[in-house]
Design a protein that fits this description.
256 residues; alpha+beta; nine-stranded mixed β-sheet
């Protein structure tokens, strides 16, 4: 009986310590295309940056839904691309400027041949022309924050994911947080990256205690809680952010 009582006490303790998931109140939720699923690929950076571009266009009232499968296929043609096919948001911008992009419905999976023309609103484009219409070469700025390098200087993130050796503007983490909040509140497209994962930021929320979070559009399908959205606290943003890509003119927007 003593053993039974001990195990019952453990169960009650575990139940008592179980925390209910927080209830989030959305302060702003920007428009976005449907959540996609990257499957077993390591191309979250492709999905995240394309999602940021899509949200940027939706904010203008211009609907685009872009094919990650097309980019995945183009990665295989790129000299120096790692077998893992990992990369960064800036890598995506470089690749679509070189190889172009097509709409999601034109190429949903990598086992399909890539289209050589894009038809949009009665206009015919090459994939390269279409890419320039949805993302100008210098439209997005790549940002990072490290106190080991001078601030407001461009730095090379020395990690395998940055295999194209792109340079990122280094700013204090509080400045990066402020710029990101401002961009999201003004309905701009933002791609967030840690060392392990990348997602688009599509909104801002708070919990019952008032703690604030970024609302992230993930690329792991809709079977998880919140139907494909994740919540990253501002504190976790400070701790885990490796890089952020946003429209260059969004950096001068305040957080109000």
């Amino acid at each position: 009986m003593k053993k039974l009582g001990f195990f019952v006490a453990l169960i009650l303790l575990a139940v008592g310590c179980r925390q209910e998931p927080p209830n989030y109140t959305h302060e702003v939720l920007n428009r976005m295309t449907p959540v996609k699923d990257q499957g077993k690929s390591q191309t979250c950076w492709v999905y995240a940056m394309l999602a940021a571009i899509e949200t940027e266009h939706l904010g203008w009232g211009d609907s685009v839904n872009l094919s990650a499968a097309y980019v995945e296929k183009m990665i295989g043609r790129e000299p120096g691309a790692p077998k893992s096919r990992r990369g960064m948001g800036k890598t995506l911008i470089n690749l679509i400027q070189k190889y172009g992009i097509v709409g999601y419905d034109a190429m949903r999976t990598t086992d399909k041949p890539e289209p050589h023309l894009v038809f949009m609103l009665g206009v015919e484009y090459t994939p390269q022309e279409f890419a320039r219409s949805v993302c100008a070469p210098d439209e997005y700025i790549a940002l990072t924050s490290t106190d080991s390098e001078p601030y407001y200087k461009e730095v090379d993130i020395d990690l395998p994911d940055n295999w194209q050796h792109d340079r990122f503007l280094n700013v204090p983490i509080d400045t990066l947080l402020e710029w990101t909040i401002g961009a999201v509140r003004h309905h701009r497209g933002v791609c967030w990256e840690s060392k392990r994962h990348a997602m688009a930021i599509v909104g801002i929320a708070h919990d019952e205690s008032g703690q604030q979070y970024f609302i992230m559009k993930n690329s792991w399908g809709t079977d998880r809680p919140h139907q494909g959205l994740e919540y990253l606290s501002f504190d976790k943003f400070r701790e885990t952010t490796l890089a952020v890509e946003m429209p260059r003119d969004a950096c001068i927007v305040d957080g109000e």
